[in-house]
């Protein structure tokens, strides 16, 4: 299986250097990453908004090694919030954050991440938008959900991400299906042990549907993070079955993937949000996108062949 190999490569500094140095890499990465600078991300927001799409912005930066990096990531998000406010784009764009980028994995990481992310959530509110806490590997779930609970005391619109491949996620869906809760449901993109997560794709898909049923039947706001046509169709049926209007849920897909499907959903009157990553630390994100779908890896390899 290539997936685990690519996920391991995502954490390899030596492979990072090889991939980054390859002449073909940059034009291929541009399919999945909006750019390295804030101005490029703002341009992408305006372009997608003109097509009827909404966005969530992710400043790339995870697996940090010292508190100074956490502060730099905090400041990058504060600059992003200021740009959204300046350009009046808060209504079209929210922000996604990985708490590892704010120091969650460092010594005293829980308190450090909460301290660093709080001003970002405050700035987002001032810009007329909100923040969703991305979920990472299973060891971070309890800390992430505890930080979510703290943030929601002042900012109840703060969102969370849940991953269907974890055994615990159905219980987490029940806990987060209440009024005002925003939950992005995804299948999961990290290599997890069999002790905590489903390994078979069919079981992950079944778990996704079970979780989606819980969220759609609840009083919160489900965000369907999937490119799988079956899951999109199931979500539409569940929304109808539970009497949800288009404003009561949304679909989310990654920048550069299934763009025609994104436009189709918009044309049908659905809310469609595109996950836009930007920043210089694109390598780990890029490798996970290759690992998730063979089509993504094929795209990269074909580009290597045609541009080599």
UniProtKB/TrEMBL annotation:
The keyword Glycoprotein does not apply. Its EC number is 1.5.5.2. Binds 1 FAD per subunit. Its cofactor is FAD. InterPro entries: FAD-linked_oxidoreductase-like, PRODH_bac_arc, Proline_DH_dom, Proline_oxidase. FAD binds at residues 135, 163, 187-189, 201, 226-227. Gene3D superfamilies: 3.20.20.220. The keyword Nuclease does not apply. Residues 44-299 form the Proline dehydrogenase domain. Substrate binds at residues 98, 288-289. GO terms for biological process: L-proline catabolic process to L-glutamate. One of its GO terms (molecular function) is nucleotide binding. It catalyses: L-proline + a quinone = (S)-1-pyrroline-5-carboxylate + a quinol + H(+). Pathway: Amino-acid degradation; L-proline degradation into L-glutamate; L-glutamate from L-proline: step 1/2. This is proline dehydrogenase. It comes from Streptomyces lydicamycinicus.
């Amino acid at each position: 299986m290539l997936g685990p190999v690519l996920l391991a490569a995502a954490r390899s500094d030596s492979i990072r250097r090889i991939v980054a140095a390859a002449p073909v890499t940059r034009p291929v990465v541009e399919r999945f990453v909006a750019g390295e600078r804030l101005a490029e991300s703002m341009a992408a927001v305006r372009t997608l908004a003109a097509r009827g799409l909404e966005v969530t912005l992710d400043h790339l930066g995870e697996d940090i090694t010292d508190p100074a990096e956490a502060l730099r990531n905090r400041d990058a998000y504060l600059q992003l919030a200021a740009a959204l406010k300046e350009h009046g784009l808060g209504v079209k764009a929210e922000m996604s954050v990985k708490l590892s980028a704010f120091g969650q994995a460092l010594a005293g990481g829980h308190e450090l991440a909460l301290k660093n992310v709080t001003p970002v959530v405050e700035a987002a509110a001032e810009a007329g938008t909100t923040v969703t806490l991305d979920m990472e590997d299973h060891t971070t779930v309890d800390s992430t959900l505890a930080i979510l609970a703290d943030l929601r005391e002042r900012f109840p619109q703060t969102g969370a991400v849940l991953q269907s491949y974890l055994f615990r996620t159905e219980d987490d869906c029940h806990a987060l299906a209440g009024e005002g809760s925003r939950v992005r449901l995804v299948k999961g993109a990290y290599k997890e042990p069999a002790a905590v997560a489903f390994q078979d794709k069919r079981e992950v898909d079944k778990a996704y549907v079970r979780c989606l049923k819980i969220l759609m039947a609840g009083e919160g706001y489900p965000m369907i993070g999937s490119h799988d046509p079956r899951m999109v169709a199931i979500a539409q049926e569940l929304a109808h079955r539970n009497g949800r209007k288009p404003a009561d849920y949304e679909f989310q897909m990654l920048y550069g993937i299934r763009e025609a499907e994104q436009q189709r959903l918009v044309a049908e009157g659905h809310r469609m949000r595109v996950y836009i990553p930007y920043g210089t630390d694109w390598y780990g994100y890029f490798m996970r996108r290759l690992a998730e779908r063979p089509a993504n890896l094929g795209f990269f390899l074909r580009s290597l062949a045609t541009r080599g």
